Amino acid sequence: MTEPSGTAGTDFIRQIIAADKASGKHDGRVVTRFPPEPNGYLHIGHVMSICLNFGIARENNGCCYLRFDDTNPAKEDQDFVDSIMADVSWLGFDWQDQLTHASDYFAAIHDCAVKLIEDGKAYVDSLSADEIRAHRGTLTEPGVDSPHRDRPIAENLDLFRRMRDGEFADGACVLRAKIDMAAPNMNLRDPTLYRIRKLVHQRTGDAWSMYPMYDFAHTISDALEGITHSLCTLEFEDHRPLYEWILDNLELPSRPRQIEFSRLNVAYGITSKRKLAALIDKGLVTGWDDPRMPTVAGMRRRGYTAQSLQTFVRNAGVTKKDKLIEMGALENCVREDLNECAPRVFAVLDPLKVVLTNYPEGQMERLTAANHPNLPDMGSREIPFTREIYIERDDFMEDPPRKFFRLRPGGEVRLRYAYIIKCVDVIKDAAGNVTEVHCTIDPESKSGKPGAERKVKGTIHWVSAAESIGVEVRLFDRMFTVANPDAERDGKAFTDFLNPDSLTIAPDCRIEPGLAAAAPGTRVQFERLGYFVVDIRDAAPGRPVFNRIVTLRDSWAKLERAQLAQI
Ligand code: ATP
Ligand code: MG
């Protein structure tokens, strides 16, 4: 088992941190933070950021803050806050006492704004949003100064106080940093620091009628918390000069360093909260925890383990290059983890009845089956064997090709942990569909009986007809039919590429009776079929619903590689 240390290994960020520690920068401390905006559930991309930030803190005996970026009350919600905390904990990380909110610092951030105004480094602009945009210039042309740029300090202080006191309507004015309207970096063209938003905030209520912009709030929060390394995704690279300008122009208790890394994207999935929310709003999935969603809640419900997610992001690495990683890589991590720990059981997804004509009616044997083929410590269980059993419909073929080693008319197959059976008759309905197969058992061929291990080519799984339990099993497939649904294609929306077969319900599956009491969240391997988990939401006592976590082999690998090669 690997240490649950996030994205451990060495990468350019860990190298910077090791060098900083060695040189005594930040007094050798390492303090990081994960700063989600509570406007949706966390997804696989966030897992990378969580493992990186919490992992680095853990490896360096430092600490990592979980800080909610709650600067936009319009989009934020307590349900999102709760889900984020649940997800970070489930992933195996602990923020201890370091649970904060940008809103904890609203007063301090306000004071920073006042200080900038007093120093002549910020001003209240009364231009409309459209006018501000028009004055901003373009990448090739400098911006134009606002007519309000040189307002006297006293007037700015008065206007800012009145913004705070709710005297102005939304959009009437903003507070801007006074930097440089001709700066090649657009983020330095007098960026907005505060805007008026007459909204009730989930934590501060109606105390504020203006809210700080993300860049301003985030930089000051980092400095107030003593963050040493502020790790963020590459889209913030262009914001770094502003981050540094804010640090340079305020007297803050510490000086964090911002370092950017590339986002993690997973093929056949999407990692944008806005797009994930759109799937929910349009009713295309059942919710944030739909097992097809690449959200932490969805993947947890799907049965993925926290360990496999950690392994996946560690393998993905930390770089500055854009990444689109194959979904198959994630599934392989899940498979490898579950192979070690999931007990084996029998289930039949598409049952075909087999009557064992020479087996006495009413007789039942309890046969011993191993819970794991290679791990004897996992023990064994008893499974009931009776005259009528179910096998998988596709384990029988009336007219099979030459290399078909399962059941065929006149052919033999071994029932795993039981007997060799021979097909003697095939029963069909009026339409010619096979409804039942009649077999005889070879009583001398019982598994485990000394000298009885006569070999036949095929071995199949089965369950007793009378003693098994009927359950619903949900089979999931890729959510999208193309590797990068996000990419622009002939004006089509990403929802045009949803896989119509991403969910198949198998309503009449049969499971061995011992599984009836399996608790929600229990993960098992259905032998020969894949890994499955008892759904945590829909399962009723005594009648579990199973989700397929992942198949035993990767049937998509070839197609996926071909598609990725074209991108
Ligand atoms: P989204 O685009 O899904 O809304 P976001 O970046 O706006 O994502 P935040 O809640 O602001 O979401 O993200 C919290 C942290 O997670 C940020 O530091 C962000 O850089 C990081 N993060 C978000 N998406 C990814 C990703 N795909 N890969 C790596 N880190 C990510
Ligand atoms: Mg964001």
Q: Can you describe this structure?
A:
- By secondary structure, the chain is of the alpha/beta class.
- The chain folds into 3 domains: 12-261, 3-Layer(aba) Sandwich (Rossmann fold), CATH 3.40.50; 273-343 and 471-565, Ribosomal Protein L25, Chain P (Beta Barrel); 347-461, Ribosomal Protein L25, Chain P, CATH 2.40.240.
- The chain has 13 helices and 27 strands.
- The chain has helices at residues 12-23, 44-59, 78-90, 106-118, 129-135, 153-164, 214-225, 240-249, 273-281, 296-302, 306-316, 327-341, 557-565, and strands spanning 31-34, 63-68, 99-101, 122-125, 174-177, 192-196, 210-212, 229-233, 257-261, 264-266, 323-325, 344-345, 347-348, 351-356, 365-370, 380-385, 388-392, 412-415, 420-428, 434-442, 459-460, 463-464, 469-476, 503-511, 523-526, 530-534, 545-550.
- The chain has a 7-stranded mixed β-sheet with strand order 12-25-26-27-23-24-13, with helices on one face. Strands 21-18-19-20-14-17-22 form a 7-stranded mixed β-sheet, with no helix packed on it. The chain has a 4-stranded antiparallel β-sheet with strand order 4-5-6-7.
- Strand 8, helix 8 and strand 9 (257-261) form a beta-alpha-beta unit.
- Helix 4 packs across helix 7 (214-225).
- The longest helix has 16 residues, at 44-59.
- The protein is elongated, with a radius of gyration of 31 Å.
- The structure holds adenosine-5'-triphosphate and magnesium ion.
- Adenosine-5'-triphosphate is lined by residues 35-37, 45-46, 48-49, 232-233, 263-264, 271-273.
